[in-house]
Amino acid sequence: MAADVRAEIEKLREEIRRHDYLYYVEARPEISDRQYDKLFDRLKELERDHPDLVTPDSPTQRVGGEPVKGFSPVAHDVAMLSVDNTYSEPELAEFDKRVRNGLISAGSIKPGARPGGFHYLVDPKIDGVAVSLRYEGGALVLAATRGDGRQGDDITNNVKRIRSAPLRLRGGPSTRSGQGGWPDVLEVRGEVYWPQKAFAQYNRQRVEAGEEPFANPRNGAAGTLKQLDPRVVADRGLAFMAHSLGQMSARPAPTASEVMKKLAAWGIPVSRDARVCPDIAAVAEVIRTWATKRAEVDYATDGMVVKVDELDLRELLGQTSHHPRWCIAYKYEAERAETVLREVEFNVARLGTVTPVAHFDPVRLAGTKVSNASLHNFDQVERLDIRVGDTILVEKAGEIIPQVLQVVLERRPRGAKPIHPPSTCPSCGGPVQRDEGGVYIRCLNVECPAQIRERLEFFAGRGQMDIANLGPAIVDQLVSQGLVKHLADLYRLREDQLAALERMGEKSAGNLVGAIQASKDRGLDRLLAALGIRHVGGRAAEALAGHFGSIDAIVAAGADELTCIEDVGPVIAQSIHGFFHSSAGQETVRRLKEAGLKMISNLRFQMTAERRRPAGGPLAGKTVVVTGTLEGFSRDQAEQAIKDAGGKAARSVSKNTDLVVVGDSPGSKADKARELGVTIMDEKEFRRMLGKG
Q1: Is the N or the C terminus of the chain less surrounded, counting Cβ atoms within 10 Å?
Q2: Is 616 a residue whose pLDDT tops 90?
Q3: Which of 110, 125, 293, 593 is flagged as catalytic?
Q4: Is 125 part of the annotated catalytic residue set?
Q5: CATH assignment of 449-521?
Q6: pLDDT confidence bin for 70, thresholds 50/70/90
Q7: What is the DSSP string of 323-345?
Q8: Beta strand pairing status for 679-682 and 659-662?
């Protein structure tokens, strides 16, 4: 019996690894998510019943993982050197000349030989974090950062949560002669990166939660890999792609391009866009072609890496103390322009953050006219030593976001005005304060007009109180005319006051008053999301409303009690507790109560009603998440159907989720469900379960 269980476990593991390979390397899945989940669930069940058969390289071991105390240093057996850079085709030709002269000196090619005699491998330079993955006996045993090239950090626990980095290689080992499968020791170098779609989605979630978005995918990936809690890594959807080799017990093939094909066969993702070129002219053509094509891929790339393909020739060429002589990175120049800084404006966001924004003479970059760029914070202003009147160099980061690169100091005019952090709020004149241990300055006045404008727009948004037609133009008039100085003032507005505003007639005014009054019944979860409490987004608000049921219960809870709630960690708990125990937070709750807003949870009320009914329903006691677009349901209809069937509709996937229903374009929630081993079903199965199929 034990032998049969062991055999079934091994078969399941191999089958799951095969489907991971087809999904992540070949991009041609053969089975549905539901079928994959059944395999995964069966493996989890067997391993739960037979814990002695669990191995570190089992696909189930990606899930979970407790926070670690820190990162241990790791010495690289083969140094992870930097790659030399070039920015022009003449410099590329010089590199080719150095390579040819080196090979002539080594006797590998003859002087005067035609161009060629060896090949170049050219592939995109991913703008990610350089890491090394070490496999022994086909199993991942170590992942490390590049560090200083000689020593990095052990990030194995975090890399194990990156699904495209295989825990075990496909196939089998090589023979004693080194032929066939993978060598016993195989060290793969590559980049951990944040796919741009996943990055954009995660940044939207951070903004929704009142957090600062990550500046770019590379910084976000680097910060994620240094998280002490591996579960954070699993939640963010990072990816890995191999591009080179470190230590190997045997050479799998004579050229790097052939080795890359073998890596792909063993389940390690490699670039599909790598090209083998017979000479430097062909290399230059590939680089020119990729200058436009690189905008089409889902990862940030800032150039192309050119490498001698033949591994034995690489050994002949050798390396300096800084970089290999057999490769070079061709970096694309970002489109830049010089302009003159005319003004720095201080913008105040809804959470009081004061952001310096540079306004300069318009310049054209990447096809659009640009005249302003965020300077992010006052530490950045100090680093740049930027002053009004300076000539500055501007580019579009990733060809999307305008940024100020540097000041052209030699062209600084007399009388250029330094930029100092404000001592008071630029909008209301109230006190400001720098975040403890941070770089941001915040206005402390909760009645600051700039904050009120931002908060009102946010409060009225679809994901919050959903007040139709309360857009920026109306909000601006309400604040500037003194009609709304606090969120609660919205609920005292009269039709005649609104009808007097620009572009508002009696009918529009009546509709807006109706929409404002209707928002009183949105419920506790939507109200919590709308209050603009720092770090509290939709899913944390829903978790709080579902657990406590009323705003009074939340106010009475201590920070430790709040921390125990799903989707509420220590930072969020402190922010919630601080808000409701501040004078401004208490005033907001009091005034909104007086205005008649519903401060108990609709979700909790409905769940209580469900408990009064006879037990049952196909989803009784289950937490269900809907992701993607369903044909037969709107999102609200699907969530109501879940509640009618006895279940709880949630917006985020966690270890407490029982089921995820996927429609078209499901996004990262389906991936997270698979990561956590949560059951996934499509709309057809969902309708059948509800008795509507």
Answers
A1: N
A2: no
A3: 125
A4: yes
A5: 1.10.150.20
A6: low
A7: SBTTEEEEEPPPPEEEEEEEEEE
A8: parallel
